[in-house]
Every structure is written in C-alpha cells, then in structure tokens.
Description:
Layout: H1 12-43, H2 48-72, H3 80-104, H4 116-126, H5 131-151, H6 170-248, H7 254-280, E1 292-295, H8 296-312, E2 317-322, E3 328-331, H9 333-350, E4 356-364, E5 367-374, H10 395-400, H11 408-418, E6 422-427, E7 433-440
Parallel strand pairs: 2-4
Antiparallel strand pairs: 1-3, 4-5, 5-7, 6-7
Helix pairs in contact: 1-2, 1-3, 1-6, 2-3, 3-5, 4-5, 4-6, 6-7, 8-9, 9-11
Amino acid sequence: MSLFPETPAFSSSSMLRRDHWLISLRWFAILGLLSGVILLKLIDLGPPNSILWMGISGGFMILLNLLYLSFASRKRQLDMLSLVTLLNVQMVIDLLLLTFLVYLTGNEESPLIFFYVFHIILASIIFPGGFSYLYSLLVIILFSSLLVLEHTGVVAHTCFFKEIHLSEDFRITIAIWFIFTITMTASAYLAQNVTERHRRVREKLEIANLKLKEVNKTKTTFFRFAGHEMKAPIATIQSTLLVIQEVLGETVDERVDGMLKRAITRTESIIDMLKSLADLTYGSLQEPQKFQHIDIHNLLSELLVDISPNADRKNQTIRYEAINKKTEVEGDEEALKKIFSNLLSNAIRYTPENGEITVKLRRIDLELEISVSDNGPGIPETEQDNIFKEFYRTPSAHKQVSEGSGLGLSIVERMVELHSGTIQVESKNGKGTRFIVRLPVGEIL
C-alpha cells in the first residue's frame, strides 16, 4: 500500500507547493542564522572558531537552497516519487546541519536543540501519518550519537559559554533573548500557517457541501414534480388502452392484441418507475412529526393479506412467524409498508412456482428483526455488494424477470436507514435469499 494515497492532499501539485513552502521557510532560517552570527560577533560571545563555522554553515545552506529551488522550478514537472525524495533529502540534510550547529554551540548546553521540534512539526505538515515519528526517531538518533561521540572522546566538546555565569553576563541574556524571539516567532508562524490552511480547507468544504445540498434539493424537487406531472397522463393512456382492449375483445387481430398488451405492460412499468423515483426522494423533505407508533405485527399481517393473491397465482406458500411481545416502533407507516411490500414482492417475483416464502418477526434486545426468506435462485456473492445501488439489477434477476427499474432495494435501504435501522442480505447461489431488517424499538431521535 502506498504511503502517499492518491488524494488532493497528497497529489504531485500539492507536494510541489509544500516543497516551495519549505524552501521559503529555509530562507528565513538562513536569515536567522546569519543574523545570530553577526550578533554573536558584535557582543563577542562564543568561541571564534564556532562562530566562523556557523557562518560557513549559513553560506552552505544558501547554496543548497538555491540548488533545491532549481530542482523545484524546473519546467518539466517532477513526478510524485521525485518530489517525495527531494523533500526527504532536504529534511535530512537540514537535520544534519542543525546537529552540526548544536555541536558548535555546546551540544547538551546548546539552546538550539529546541529547533529540532520545528523539523518534527514540519514533517507532520508536509508528509502523511507516520513520517513525523520517523523524523522524531532520526532526531533522537542524531542527538544521542552526538552525545556518545563527545563523551567517548571521539570528538571534542565545544564549551560555548566557557566559565561565564548565565545570570551575570548580559551577553548571554541577549543571546538567549534572540533565540527565544526566533523560537516564539517561528512557533507563531507555523501555528498560524497550519490554522489558516485548515480554515481555508474547511471553508471550501462547507461551500461545496452547501452547493451539493442545493443541487440535491433541486433534484428532489424535479423528481417529485416530474413524477407527479407525468404519472397522470401516462395513467390516462393506460386507461385508454385498457378500454380499447375491452371494446375490441376477442375479435381483434392477433398482432393488434399483442401490441395492445405490450403497450399496457410498458405504461404500467413507466408508472411503477415514476412511483419509484418519487420514493427515491423519501427523507429529503421528510417531516419529523410524521413518525408515530406503528405496530409492525399488524402492519405485516395486513400486507400479507393484500399480497397473498399474487403468491396464490404461483401456488406459493407464505409462512408467517411472529412473537407475542410488543412489536411497536416509531416510524412512518407508509414508508414501512413500502419497505416490506417491496421485499415481499421481490420474494414472490423471484421464487419459482410451488415455492415457499417465510416471514419472521422477533425481538432482540432493543431491536425488532424482520426477515423475509425465499427458496428462489439466490444472489451470487459477487453481486451482493451492488444490489442496494440505484438502478442496479443483477444479471440473473434480469434474465428471470425483464421488468424492473433497479430502484426498489436502494429505496428500501434509504427508508430503513431513515428509521435508524439496518438491512442486510444473506444468500447463496441456487439456495434462496434472506433479507433481514432491524429497527430500533425506542423512539427515533
């Protein structure tokens, strides 16, 4: 798995902007270092050799930063790997130079050791996740190695302040004040920079969210308007076709009769789709006061009575198993009817003749569990993740029943979720399907 996911936060263009930002920060660090060298020279504080090497380090950093800038400003844009490598090289070299400066200013006595913190903060801003921990480990290794080298006599200790008492020498006070000022300024800049970036990103997200809500509201209004306006004329066409079919009776030509039947079937499919589109917007403009106490046992009993003629036509058996405990939930009665009528209709549609459908209602802790099972062809495991997507129909379902919009289960899932419930499917190819709906017994907040 890649350490840098392909997201806007870690794209090539984003990493290039961070590279330019790091280069800009380094110019300020160089300015601070050279200003410190000049100040130490003016107040005659510190070994001359250390101050000389500090100045040389500043010049070396200028050359390095110019080199980094030339790489980052190339006309041919660097790829992601090259940018990451360039940024890591810069960070590591900066830490090595800082370790050298810490050595020049007294190692464990050096006030510059706190500048390591800035590099860890920069690593957390520039790189994802665990990079800041890797750089903190590198800092520990570098500083620990320097201590070991000094205390084993491999390198000589630099006594930057010699025998001076810190509270008695005004030069020390000036030096500490200078480092303190740089530290506070850098901390404020980094904190403000991170906060400002976060604020800008949040504002963009909020604006995008508002636009999406507006688009969704427009889509919802259009669906409802279109469904309402189109359903009436299509229903009129269907009624006219039925009247024509009835008037002509059996005397009509076979081809005309076939055309009439197909036209009636298509108009019925269009009306069903318009109803589904209207149901698809359920919850977008839902009024909270529509939720009321609903007895799921009574609701299922009524639905089974209404839907049983469809099962009878295919000689199917419907078994209903219910508990005697309280089966009330808070919900929208029409929506709950649509949920279970859809599941029952699908079970009847895809269960073969003489098949069996089982509906179970039971209570588990603070939830009601309603399951609808059949012994139909089942749903292949490879297709189960997609069945709740809008307009999706499995190839096996399409072969068995040509009609259908593919909206039914997506509508069911949305309505279940708006009742703070869950729905899942259990199925094996050739061994039937079981849909399980769980609804909370308590009030919906």
